[in-house]
Amino acid sequence: MRYNRDFKRWKFSTDRIIETEEYQWMIDEYDEFRKKMLHVDIRDMNHELYGMPKRDGNESTGSKIRNAVITILVIGAFISCAVALILKQILVFGILFCSLFFVAGAIMVFTGQASTNDTPSKMIRGRVIGIFIMLGSGAILSLILLRDRFLEAEMLVWIASAAFGLAGLCLVCLAIIDKLSDKIIYKEEIDAKCIGYIRMVDSQSDSDGGPPMTYMYISPVFEYSYEGQRIEAVYDTLQLGDCCDIELDSYARIRIDPKHPEDIMGPNVTANSRFVSMLIFGIIFTCVGSGLAWYSLLGGTKDLTVETSWNELLPDTTEAPAKQQINDEAIEANYADDINGKDWYFEVTTVVSAEDYQGNLLLTFDDSFEKMLVKTDTGFKAGDDICIFYTVAFESEDQTEGYKCPFVYTKPSEVEYTGSHTAFKK
After folding, report:
1. Of 125, 98, 97, 94, which is closest to residue 112 (Cα–Cα)?
2. Residue 216 forms part of a structural domain
3. What digits encode the pLDDT tens for the residues 206-258?
4. Is residue 311 very low, low, confident or very high in pLDDT (cuts 50, 70, 90)?
5. What angle in degrees, to the nearest 10, is found between the helix axes of 152-179 and 123-145?
6. Cβ partners under 8 Å of residue 43, min gap 6
7. Tens-place pLDDT, residues 261-308
């Protein structure tokens, strides 16, 4: 990028190696700079942080209208999101945020900027990220709008598949772009003279929530001519460290972007460690996304259930199956041999235990029911309710004591008994 002599955060020096005292002085100055930023007008922050031109009040009418529209949209979006959360409308919240991300991706595609200090050569990465943001937000938005065609669990699996898959492909593309940047971006190699060095202190928040970590970055200041133009420039990506490996007043071979000759490829852009890590994570994310998609296509989501506490993102569109109604006539007609002229009864009771018995389930109950053998695929377990139709085998002459003998059973969720036979009373 072009060397900006007015950018105060870049400390120019002709010393290839700096002393400990100077290093500490720069750290202390940066700490004071961060305190100062707390009182800087937000409109001038880009100038202080990145060296962008100061706002001078002479913006064009078109620029003012554009900024006003963007401001109104952003404020409106956040207000809408807040209202959607307060009213517990997750569906509205999802559609709104997907739409916002789609617009953000489109802006990155057309401008190429991922951050305010991107050079033209680095904007190709911003455009790639923007394309995948548009694809991801568009895919998820389409799934939400077509939610009636999916079960809730299936829908969430597809959303996760799209997010992981596209994120993985984006990382793979960025890794390839970085690795081949000397072929597709910085295509030309020239000789340049080192006329000094710039150093900049910056900080990055700790991932564990601790205080920000402070780092020193450096780049030689190169002087060279290209197509009759004298250029002073530094690496597009500054190196981590405080000392440089290029001697002052020596010449070095650098790679530049012919379309933007002030852009110089940093020596760490094609680093193997960065390429390998991005490629590995990209492949992992892509495999996870593909695996989730394949799992859903094979019908694996049919057995999944998703519970939501309020206003489902994807409303359950499936209707509970209607219960089969059974009356007295149906029971007596179908089970006449089991009833054999005896009095029969209907009762809903609870399974006390369900034990495996020669490949079937042996059920016991909390009343005087006889044990009952059922098929394993019925899925009964301890604590489940069960509907039982039964007769009674009496043991006493006064017919007050006896065992309940089931002749047919069913699940309360499947059958509704509409007859008049009630439970046996001693």
Report:
1. 125
2. no
3. 555 566 788 888 999 999 999 889 999 999 888 888 888 899 999 999 999 99
4. very low
5. 170
6. 55
7. 999 988 876 666 678 888 899 999 999 989 988 888 887 776 666 554
Give 387's contacts (C-beta < 8 A, 6+ positions apart): 346, 347, 348, 409, 410, 411, 412, 415, 417
Structural domain for 361, as ranges: 324-417
pTM of the complete model beyond 0.70: no
Which CATH number characterizes residue 332's domain? 2.40.50
Q: What Å distances lie between residue 404 and 35, 173, 338, CA to CA?
A: 83, 71, 13
Whether residue 141 is contained in a domain is answered as: no
Residue 340 lies in a domain: yes
Nearest to 265, CA basis, from 275, 278, 253: 253
CA distances from 156 to 75, 159, 161 (A): 29, 5, 9
Strands (E), 227-269: 229-233, 239-240, 251-257, 260-264
For residue 120, is it within any domain?
A: no
- In terms of DSSP bridges, do strands 239-240 and 11-13 run parallel, antiparallel, or are they unpaired? unpaired
